[in-house]
Amino acid sequence: MSTRGKNHSEWDSISTLYHTVVGQLTIPIAAGLVDWVHETVPLNGPGANAMDNGCGTGIVCSLLKSNYPTLPVLATDFSSAMIDEVLRNAEESGWKHFQARVLDSRNLDSVETESVTHLFTTFMICLAPDPDQIVSEMHRVLQQNGILGLAVWARPNFGFFEAAWIEACHELDPTYEAPTLMDPEWIEPENVRRGLAKAGFKSVEIKAEQQSWDWENVNAVSTYFFDGHNPGNTKWHDSWTERGQSIDKVRPLFERKLEEAYGQSDGSLKGPVPFCLAIARK
Ligand SMILES: C[S@@+](CC[C@H](N)C(=O)[O-])C[C@H]1O[C@@H](n2cnc3c(N)ncnc32)[C@H](O)[C@@H]1O
């Protein structure tokens, strides 16, 4: 069952690329989170239901539906293009007990108070406006004793592209300052712990780890970074062109820096991306 709405966000234009490119990095991380949540409060226990808040293309939903096909799952995102991708996947895969709906996480008004037993949110609150409001809404919709499973990036500038981008820009314009992409209050492990406790969550547990991001060659990374429409990358490009600088000039320098940092002998690239997982109870 689905509820479609109309909403356009800066995430719409990455929706088709997201699953293949970013999914390769986030699927193993999300799988670890789903397993951790299940070990703590079983996803196949009586009365269990799940919500994937800021679901994107539905990576957590896919994991839940593959492992627990009868678990009722609600997926929400404020990008209608993302919800369209999830619904396409749901139809193709024949998921039952599944709903997806366009909804802003800052106001989950169509989700009943204390109705969700297992609430997931991956790589959303670190990038979204008003993360405190989002966390407060998640606390509202979670049942007493329900569990939150959360994943965020663990560096204010994501990490993987940061040094290559800034060093490449500085070769052309030493005074350039890249804008910070994420709110440190919702990425650094101790801040995440504090933020969840402040919102009323208890039994907060945190894991800070790294995932390797592997690319076929530098061209693939560069195409994603410059042409992929990821809102974070776009913010950096805009901060560069607003200074009258050219993307065409910085691009080869950026590629060289990436190869220096991550290049492998077979032409592929491989580098670490730090992330933080949390589980917490209401
Ligand atoms: C980096 S993607 C993560 C998607 C997915 N959770 C995953 O792990 O692959 C961030 C998602 O959060 C969504 N998002 C950002 N702010 C939101 C908000 N206020 N309400 C609902 N969705 C939001 C975006 O549309 C995007 O799909």
From TrEMBL:
SUPFAM superfamilies assigned: S-adenosyl-L-methionine-dependent methyltransferases
Organism: Heterodermia speciosa
Pfam family membership, one: Methyltransf_11
Highest taxon of the lineage: Eukaryota
Start and end residues of each Methyltransferase type domain: 52-148
Name used for this protein in its record: Methyltransferase type 11 domain-containing protein
GO molecular function, one term: S-adenosylmethionine-dependent methyltransferase activity
Stored InterPro entries: Methyltransf_11 (IPR013216), SAM-dependent_MTases_sf (IPR029063)
